[in-house]
């Protein structure tokens, strides 16, 4: 890893220690800051507390952007599942494809609206691999050495997908192409770029940022940024 990436990672760890980006309200009241806890999704403001909208699509990662050729690409899904799969690119593209539009919230306070993602829905993957009843969490691993954990209950939803296109173009390498995870309800670090593995686990196992001071649950609507 280059020196500048080390610096970026150190800076983000510092942010977690200082709890940067939190609104004054969140600092005072802890993490339970949803403006109106009873508001439905539709009634909520579009921007979560402490976030600002940016134009374009910033790039954020550990600074390693692996080149993963389609011929070499595969997705390995294992652990507590009835039917473990290893999909190569052709297998992956042969699955039913969907398009979903969602907003994207990075913990460093920027958000982008109306990203148009295409790929395979997580619910479809679940129907193929059939998690065992003991499976509760999924640990995602990536080609840059990154990892992140998400509860199965959050992944088992209509807005979660394994994406290979953004705004009608193939997902670029800098944004995690050929394939990344999209979990719109959580801060964006829960969506693994260059995803290569999914491990279905009986209990939680923290990932890269989760062991470096970031929240395990990562709900943007409660400013659930840091542990
Ligand atoms: N493999 C991998 N996935 C990752 C990251 C990373 O460093 N490596 N960074 C996360 C963070 S902190 C964010 S905000 C988003 C950024 O995605 P983008 O670069 O497409 O904007 O990717 C997430 N997924
Ligand atoms: Mo992020």
Provide an overview of this structure:
It is a single chain. With 227 residues, this protein is an alpha+beta fold. Strands 1, 4, 5, 8, 9 and 10 form a 6-stranded mixed sheet that branches. A 5-stranded mixed sheet has the order 3-2-11-6-7. The longest helix is centred in the first third of the chain and has 16 residues. It is globular and about 50 Å long. The protein starts with a helix and ends in a 26-residue tail after the last strand. About 2% of the residues have low confidence. The site of the ligand Nc1nc2c(c(=O)[nH]1)N[C@H]1C(S)=C(S)[C@@H](COP(=O)(O)O)O[C@H]1N2 has 18 residues, from loops.
Figure out the total of helices: 5
Biggest sheet descriptor: 6 strands, mixed
Which cofactors or ions or other ligands sit in this model?
the ligand Nc1nc2c(c(=O)[nH]1)N[C@H]1C(S)=C(S)[C@@H](COP(=O)(O)O)O[C@H]1N2, molybdenum atom
Class of secondary structure makeup: alpha+beta
Structural descriptors:
227 residues; alpha+beta; 6-stranded mixed β-sheet; 5-stranded mixed β-sheet; 5 helices; globular; binds the ligand Nc1nc2c(c(=O)[nH]1)N[C@H]1C(S)=C(S)[C@@H](COP(=O)(O)O)O[C@H]1N2; binds molybdenum atom
What's this model, at a glance?
By secondary structure, the protein is an alpha+beta fold. Helices cover 17% and strands 27% of the residues. Strands 1, 4, 5, 8, 9 and 10 form a 6-stranded mixed β-sheet that branches. Strands 3-2-11-6-7 form a 5-stranded mixed β-sheet.
């Amino acid at each position: 890893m280059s020196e500048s990436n080390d610096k970026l990672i150190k800076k983000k760890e510092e942010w977690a220690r200082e709890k940067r980006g939190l609104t004054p309200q969140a600092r005072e009241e802890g993490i339970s800051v949803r403006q109106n806890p009873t508001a439905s999704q539709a009634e909520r403001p579009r921007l979560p507390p402490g976030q600002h909208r940016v134009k374009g699509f910033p790039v954020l990662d550990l600074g390693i952007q692996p080149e993963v050729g389609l011929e070499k690409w595969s997705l390995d899904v294992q652990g507590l599942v009835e039917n473990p799969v290893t999909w190569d690119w052709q297998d992956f593209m042969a699955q039913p494809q969907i398009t979903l539009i969602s907003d994207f919230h990075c913990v460093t306070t920027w958000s982008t609206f109306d990203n148009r993602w295409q790929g395979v829905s997580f619910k479809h993957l679940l129907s193929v691999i059939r998690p065992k009843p003991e499976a509760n969490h999924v640990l995602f691993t990536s080609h840059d050495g990154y990892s992140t954990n998400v509860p199965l209950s959050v992944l088992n939803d209509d807005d979660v997908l394994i994406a290979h296109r953004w705004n009608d173009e193939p997902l670029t390498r800098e944004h995690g192409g050929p394939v990344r995870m999209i979990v719109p309800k959580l801060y964006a670090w829960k969506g693994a770029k260059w995803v290569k593995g999914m491990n279905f686990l009986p209990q939680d196992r923290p990932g890269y940022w989760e062991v470096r001071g970031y929240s395990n649950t990562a709900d943007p609507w409660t400013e659930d940024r840091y542990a």
